[in-house]
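tool=predict chain=A
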Amino acid sequence: SFFAIYLPWLCVTEFHNSYTVFAGGDDFFLLGPWRSQMQLVWRMQQEFSRYVAGNPQIHFSAGLYLTKPGLPIRQLADGAEQLLEQAKGSEQPQTGAKKNAVTCFGYSMGWDEFKQLLDESLWLESTRQRMGLSTGYIYGLLGLAEMADKKNATDPQKAMWRSHLSYRTYRWVSDKRKPEQGESPQDYQERIKQEASELTGQLIGKLKRYGGSYQLALSTYLYSYRD
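tool=predict ok
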């Protein structure tokens, strides 16, 4: 009933651009704009959890397959199925549990982390507006997030991601900010250091928490500005 009745109703009433290829039994296959599909799958997970009265033994997993238009439907199905299996086989670091996860942009994670990273993309947007972050700077964070992934914790070269981040941020801030009228060189340098330190500290906290999964937030932000 959830997939055959409620899901089509939800698409008709709130997610108008989603197309239901199949929905029934314990399975579904939807097509639609990538960002609205991310919001839809989160909504589905929340509503499904409520539907089964929060029973932890009943899992909800999904794979989001992003591609260019025009790909044959069979290839779309195969790609989404592979990501679904990746989600089902993933182990969540906090609990060690499997299933009840989602795979998006190649990373698998639990639903709470997925929602947190969607919110992180909004933080990136607000920070861009407040500080004028460049697209090039955000692109550079993708590589640093990969270096910060927990699987690289024993690699001494990749453990240098903090120093790389500090250097890149200071260079970006110093190139972006110019001395204000009447500002002394000492005050200018202090202002640059303070702004770079604040942004670096915020990003270090996020990369330490999410590791490579932070690429989902970065990719969501970047794809939003692609033509």
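Helices lie at 2-13, 34-51, 73-89, 111-131, 135-147, 161-176, 185-210, 214-223. The radius of gyration is 21 Å.
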